[in-house]
Amino acid sequence: EQDLNKPHAIALASNKLETFREFRSNSFTDVPDWTTNPEEAQHWLDLGLKTYCRRLLSSHSGNGIVICNDGDRLVSAPLYTLHTKHRHEYRVHVFRDQILDVQQKKKKLSYGNGNGIRNHSNGWVYARAEIAPTEELLSSARRAVNLLGLDFGAVDIGHRLIDNKFFVFEVNTAPGLEGTTLDKYAKAIYNYYRSI
Asked: Looking at the predicted structure, is the pLDDT value of residue 13 above 60?
């Protein structure tokens, strides 16, 4: 059987908590600090640290995320992640260990600050021009896809420049595809099936 992205790998990747557990069990540290323990999350808040309460484990576009700041009451959630203070965020498209495409999330000039979630409705778009992802970042994205047992995925990954740290937020198994990115996937899939 030569199907791409087996169902068990898709299920693993589409649940953020299971994804982070799989990463932890493989000593993959390019992820935000996270916990399922509300007391630990409350401790972060008490220290004045912004905390993301992820009420939905299988969602996209920031759905189900409640951001809590110092002084807020912690929202009950199955997963909490600590704000990473990353400067740049990329979407890296990986197909069978090859980098197909890289885009950087950039803010449209006409938008204000939004609510702290970098999604389309808050004015963030993917851009290819004038971006410079490092080889380390691309390597981290490749490893994330491999650890989840996926043949392909679109890795949302942040880069904090001050200490050169990377944060895989999620691996999308059904990313919205259009234009250049769609063409690259189509070609890669076509070549894959021709080779087997």
From this structure: yes
DSSP states along 160-188: ETTTTEEEEEEEESS----HHHHHHHHHH
Asked whether the predicted pLDDT for residue 1 surpasses 60, the reply is no
Judged against a pLDDT cut of 90, whether residue 148 lies above it is answered with yes
Residue 88 token pair? 């740049």
The type of residue at 67 is I
Using DSSP's 3-state secondary structure scheme, residue 123 falls into: coil
pLDDT at 20 over 90: yes
Nearest alpha carbon to residue 37 among 90, 93, 83, 79 = 79
Torsion of the alpha carbons at 162, 165, 170 and 173, rounded to the nearest 10 = 110
DSSP 89-119: EEEEEEETTEEEEEEEEEE-TT---TTS--S
